[in-house]
């Protein structure tokens, strides 16, 4: 009897320990799951808020809106093209004529000559 | 002997009894242990549920709140990709997007006072009819829409009524931050967010899946072009207008305007004139702009020199028809002169020299005679003579008798000036490097070079002097066409157009402008021809583009003017305008 009681006690203690550990783990998982839900929700909300701000930004900066504000509050005109100067740091000049390159993908198809 | 056995059996029985009893005891103890353990576990769990979790942590509370929305939270919509995709311009600017809005509905069974509620609702939403709302509130239906897409302040006012039968449902609403800019290209959706026109319609499937779309449009250039066209329409009291800015290499449409336009956020379906897409659906006879094509055809197919001459001293007769010049020189003209003075007689002779089949095939190869293969489904069918007789060849050489869309004309001109490669117009931003693009040659490099020079000549010395912007080598061709009426062509109803390219020595951009039924004004001495109406718009748009894109003008004399190469074919007898 004495021997059996010891075994029971050992099993009892081990089971209790396991149950406690399991409870702790489940609590931890639940807490992390909750935190994840909250984070996802916050991220989604922030994303949507950002999206709304982008839409508002697009509206406020729409050329028509800016033109209306300029017409109402400022006296601006399209700048004289001669005021535009070349940025000397740019390596490529826009208006430099370019020679056509030999292009291996070029399909030289005469559509009209019908030869 | 018997006693011995009884005694022995008794002893054995007692021993066995004693052993069994112990076994039962131990099992009982084990079972009890398990029960005790189970109760302990239950007790701990009860403690956890009532004490530990009885006081919810802020995270837990927020989590439960986040998970208990009746309608999906925005993050769910974002995550699932159910929100309709955005449409962006080439620089990533939003041109169409989807936002959440609230819509008002009624559970008519729970409306306590329909008459009072209807009156209060009509005060908030004056556009609603009292009788209509009252009828809905009295219908007894569990769900009936009262007002879709209400504003936040209107929602607040409805909540203040305190009627339990009124409720809101969150819905997606398509929004267009730029209002009427590029309205005919972008298109619009139904209230249920299904594309009904333009890009919204053509790409409905991918947009519905939440995929974003980048257009070739530059919304800044779109505005610049629209502003210029609107001013011209106002100045010349015109009926309508259209314009295109195109990249001549890629065929990307950087701006496409059809006026009058409409606000995409509130499309008025009754205003057919504003809804009508003049860029791709409207087909127009554009007159002398077509001389670009007949001249290019002659130079490319017949390989004639620019010095080839055409007798424009007398009108050209064909049957009972006489072809006359608007800017009559009444002399023998070289090809550059025919082009520069926009001689109908000379161009008709070019068509004659080419022959019907060659000219028609050339037009067809440039995509002028068949419906446009395009991302927007609203495309018009070009009007082509049927049957195509020799007389039609003469008139088609200077743009009469053939009607096509502005986008097709723009693409065809781009094909002739970009080195001679067929341009397929597109509204989608393309990132394919030039070397990887399959290219089909339609005219030789030599013909393309000559066309650049001729187009430049028209601006320096011809009918389009008002299109010039010093330092940008603008080239182009004017086109003034009389609109067909009940009794033939009407001289008082014109379509004035201009198609220009710049820089003419190596064109990068093409600009097309067209004004429908302009009326001459004091500034133009009563003229409403393309040289007075459409060509100046080219100059305005080039100036705007220069400031927007930072295009630097070439300083005088630093590069040869392309027109100089063909000026020796010109006999400058007198100056002409418009």
General description of the model:
The complex is a heterodimer of chains A (115) and B (578). With 115 residues, chain A is an all-alpha fold. Chain A has helices at 2-60, 63-73; one strand spanning 106-107. Chain B is an alpha+beta fold. In chain B, the strands form 4 sheets. In chain B, strands 1, 2, 3, 4 and 5 form a 5-stranded mixed beta sheet that branches. In chain B, strands 7-6-15-14-13 form a 5-stranded antiparallel beta sheet, with helices on both faces. In chain B, helix 4 crosses helix 5 (130-137) and helix 10 packs antiparallel against helix 20 (535-549). At the A-B interface, helix 1, helix 2 and strand 1 of A face helix 1, helix 2, helix 3, strand 2 and helix 10 of B. Strand 1 (106-107) of chain A pairs parallel with strand 12 of chain B.
Topology:
The complex is a heterodimer of chains A (about 120) and B (about 575).
Chain A: H1 2-60, H2 63-73, E1 106-107
Chain B: H1 2-52, H2 58-67, H3 74-80, E1 87-88, E2 94-106, H4 114-124, H5 130-137, E3 144-150, H6 152-161, E4 166-175, H7 183-186, H8 198-202, H9 204-208, E5 213-214, H10 219-235, E6 240-247, E7 253-259, H11 272-275, H12 291-302, E8 309-311, E9 316-318, E10 321-323, E11 332-334, H13 335-340, H14 344-354, H15 356-365, H16 390-397, H17 406-417, E12 439-440, H18 445-461, E13 475-485, E14 488-502, E15 509-516, H19 530-533, H20 535-549
Parallel strand pairs in B: 1-5
Antiparallel strand pairs in B: 1-2, 2-3, 2-4, 6-7, 6-15, 8-11, 9-10, 13-14, 14-15
Helix pairs in contact in B: 4-5, 4-6, 10-20, 12-14, 12-15, 12-18, 14-16
